[in-house]
UniProtKB/TrEMBL annotation:
<keyword id="KW-0560">Oxidoreductase</keyword>
<dbReference type="GO" id="GO:0042602">
    <property type="term" value="F:riboflavin reductase (NADPH) activity"/>
</dbReference>
<dbReference type="Pfam" id="PF01613">
    <property type="entry name" value="Flavin_Reduct"/>
</dbReference>
<dbReference type="InterPro" id="IPR002563">
    <property type="entry name" value="Flavin_Rdtase-like_dom"/>
</dbReference>
<dbReference type="InterPro" id="IPR012349">
    <property type="entry name" value="Split_barrel_FMN-bd"/>
</dbReference>
<dbReference type="InterPro" id="IPR050268">
    <property type="entry name" value="NADH-dep_flavin_reductase"/>
</dbReference>
<protein>
    <submittedName>
        <fullName>Uncharacterized protein</fullName>
    </submittedName>
</protein>
<dbReference type="GO" id="GO:0010181">
    <property type="term" value="F:FMN binding"/>
</dbReference>
Length: 170
């Protein structure tokens, strides 16, 4: 990497990350009675004691300021059956919640048909670079056993349930 300029390094990083398969999440919150949400892949479990996770949100994202003000948020793990929700959330219009079965639980929007929904209270916020890292402590969790996660890879959705299986005896 000797002699690589900053912009080239950033582009190389983007190219590398495009080839990391990632589960797709709809991160949602409520602020002043209004629902907000974005698609995210920068979500990770953090700890089992206390049960917690972290969500990285770009500070220019429409969700950022409402999530900064809110004390709760939900990480909805999208399944293959939620692709319509993912596609709606990619549009720059305010009616992102016009598709899907949304209910309010613990004062946040929860997708009833998501593979899983993890409702959190905000425990900590940390700004780093272009993003804020939100650490959420779990308040409630819902899970459906019959869902396959919606996965993003190289700028497209893939079905990991149809991935070729390796023969363990080979």
């Amino acid at each position: 990497m000797h002699g690589v300029g900053h912009s080239e390094l950033v582009e190389n990083f983007r190219d590398a990350m495009r080839h990391v398969a990632a589960t797709v999440y709809a991160v949602t919150t409520m602020d002043a009675g209004q629902r907000y949400g974005i698609l995210a892949t920068a979500v990770s479990s953090l700890s089992f004691e206390p049960p917690s996770l972290l969500v990285c949100v770009n500070r220019t994202a429409s969700l950022h300021d409402p999530m900064e003000r809110a004390e709760r948020f939900c990480v909805n793990v999208l399944g293959l059956g939620n692709r319509d929700v993912a596609e709606r959330f990619m549009l720059p219009r305010p009616d992102r919640f016009g598709v899907g079965e949304w209910v309010d639980e613990h004062e946040v929007p929860v997708l009833a048909t998501a593979q899983s929904s993890l409702i959190c209270k905000t425990a900590h916020r940390q700004v780093f670079g272009t993003h804020t890292i939100f650490i959420g402590e779990l308040l409630a969790a819902n899970h459906r056993d019959d869902a396959t996660p919606l996965t993003y890879f190289d700028r497209d959705y893939i079905d990991i349930s149809k991935a070729p299986q390796r023969d363990p005896d080979a």
